[in-house]
Task: structure prediction
Amino acid sequence: MTTSKDLSLEDRILKLKQEKNAVILVHNYQLGEIQDIADFVGDSLELSQKAAKTKSDVIVFCGVHFMAETASILCPDMTVLLPDMHAGCPMANMITAEQLRQKKKELPGATVVCYINTTAEVKAESDICCTSANAVKVVESLANNEILFIPDQYLGHYVSTKTNKKIHLWPGYCPTHTRIRPEHITRLRQEYPEAKVVVHPECRPEVIALADEVLSTGGMIRYARSEDVNDIIVGTEMGIIHRLRKENPGKKFIPISEQAVCPNMKLITLEKVLWSLEETTYEIKVPEEIRLKAKAAVDKMIAIV
Ligand code: 13P
Ligand code: SF4
Result:
């Protein structure tokens, strides 16, 4: 008789997932083996939209803390699990709710747009949320011409180049994306003169200035699929290369920098996903008062995209 101990890790996860009526949501930066067991792989916007619609009892969120927290904000009756409690986003920790309250006092006329890479407490203090896929659209949808954009100064700067509104920036940044430098692009353009360069809007402005396209991770997946280009130089976290190569076997994907690795994203392993399902760990819950306020900011974003 086959016992579950004879099964591979992947098969044990899939079996338990069915028994628990769970869904596995995976961000584009996760390790290849995690992407391969996913029910759905996507960017922050796609994952929050998927979470909002899911009918399962359990969501195993393979990403970082703010992503699981957003799923929990949208699905309070579901059990949302993050397989490693230490998988945080350093950028999300670059602003606290108290710091935001102080800043709002300094800028009483500004509408607060928070990047989804924030804690629930910070979302609860914000007017509307955005992701890298819709930041320009969200800002443009607002009646107010004065915006406080938190916490990513580089995404905020990119938005400011696409709108006439006055954007106040917060000095947050992604340690992974800031490792990508203009000289990396210059060198690769010489090596691959036919290639297109796509970069994430969390990159520095001098990197963005050299790119052909500025896209969220989901935008990069669609670009690779639909554009008639063979060589694509990719300026974002390395994990996305697995999906790009898997979905486009005939195309060449060249990472701009192999140092663009988010260590927090890599904390999620197959063993931890299995334990997470076995032990129902680590459950992500947001206090109801904060959840309702944070949900209002996330719902406003979902309504306009
Ligand atoms: P995306 O929403 O583009 O997937 O980005 C999330 C993120 O954390 C980028 O570093
Ligand atoms: Fe946060 Fe950067 Fe990692 Fe994205 S890549 S989760 S912004 S640290």
